[in-house]
Every structure is written in C-alpha cells, then in structure tokens.
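User: I'm putting together notes for a lab meeting next week and I want to include a structural view of one of the chains we've been expressing. I don't have a solved structure, so I'd like a prediction I can at least talk through. The sequence is below, exactly as it appears in our construct file.
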Amino acid sequence: MGNRDRIYEILAGDVEYDSPVIDRSALEKIASQAMPTVHPSKTETFGPLVILFAGLAYVVKGPLTGDIESLLPFVIVITMLLWAYRCVKMRRHVVERLEGTVEKCIEELQSQDQYLRRYMQGLDQRTSKYFHCVTNTKVTTYFVLMQISTGIERRLSEVQALLARRTTDSFFAAYSKLQGSLVFTDGVDPRSGQTHMLPLARLSKTVPLLIENLEGGLKELEEEISVAKSQYTDQPES
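Assistant: Thanks for the context. Below is the predicted structure for the 238-residue chain, given as structure tokens.
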C-alpha cells in the first residue's frame, strides 16, 4: 500500500482507533448522541401563563371575599403559576447541561488547534532547508494538516459566535456544529484536489496519525539526504 493510500485510509477512518484518547473525547461522545430536546416546550411552559393572566382578577377577589366560587379560580391560577415555574426550571436545567457539554467540546477543540499549530510551526522550522525536495505524497499530508488547522480555527470561531448570543437556539446550533465535520481538499490550493470530510469526533486520533505518516516520510527523506551528503564528502579530491 502506498503512502498516499495510507493518507486516504486515515482520513476515511479506515483504521483502528484503539487509543484511550478517543474514549475520553467529548467530541466523540456528542457525535454518538442524538440532539437533546428541551422539554417541556415553550408552549407547555408559557401556555399556563395565558390562563394565569386571564384569571388575575380572581387572585385578589377570592381571598378577600372568602367566597368558595371565587377561591376555586384562585387555586387554579396559583397551580398554573407553579406549573409554569417548574417548566422554566426544567428548561433551564437542560440548557445548563447542554452549555457544560459544549464548553468541554470547545476546550478539546482548542487543545487540538494549539497542538496542530505548534507542530506545523516546528515542522516549518525543521524542514525549511529541504522541504522543496519532498515528494507529492508528503506535500499532500502537509497541506491536509494545514487545511485541518484552518478548519478547526473557523469552526471554533463559528461556535463561539453562536455562544455569544446566549440564547437556547444558539446553544443548540453550537452543539450541532460540534457534531459535524470539517470539509477540505488535499490540494495545494484549497479549491483543488480531492474533497474529504473529517468528523470532529475523529479529530483527536486522525491528526496524530497524519503526523505519524508525515514524520515517517520525512525521516526517510532525511536519511536519504544524510547518505547523499556522506557520499559527497567521501569523494576523493581530484
């Protein structure tokens, strides 16, 4: 199997993910879960309030008159008010739990972003003198990693913009984006090459595998350069 085939295997997920990292991945967990629902719905929550306001006249009249017929609507209104309060609390609990899950995923995504950025910066420094010699396969891996890094940065920006709105709908939209995938190509130009989709759930394992694949190719190249240098220096002077 060629090196390029290995790249495509990794991107397609046709590899064994036996690393404990994926088991602790918050992104992997939400990808395997259905989108949570807020229950009760807004209609169930605020419907009783309509009845509450319709019967507000009885809230004062009932207790003051002591009339049983007036007290009954008063009790109904109070019951509806308590039900509405309970619904609001239940909705808030779901949203808070959703917010906590999203924050964990953002932390994981930020960690992956920093890790990949540091690696790419170090790689550029290490290979600045000979990277022009690498094969197309190694260039493919390099530009795939660059586009993944750009995709992570863009997704983080989108999610954080949604969270800044501080609404229930924006939290759900952020959750949905964290369940999604990065879309990129393997070409030098992002508008060219073969298109790939990398689920965020596989990010924490895919990036190290791509780096491992790239480092293996660079090691071979460095050995070739070292051998070529030694052969050149060993040549007898004419």
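A couple of points you could mention at the meeting. Residues 68-127 form the longest helix (60 residues). The mean pLDDT is 76.

User: Perfect, that's what I needed.
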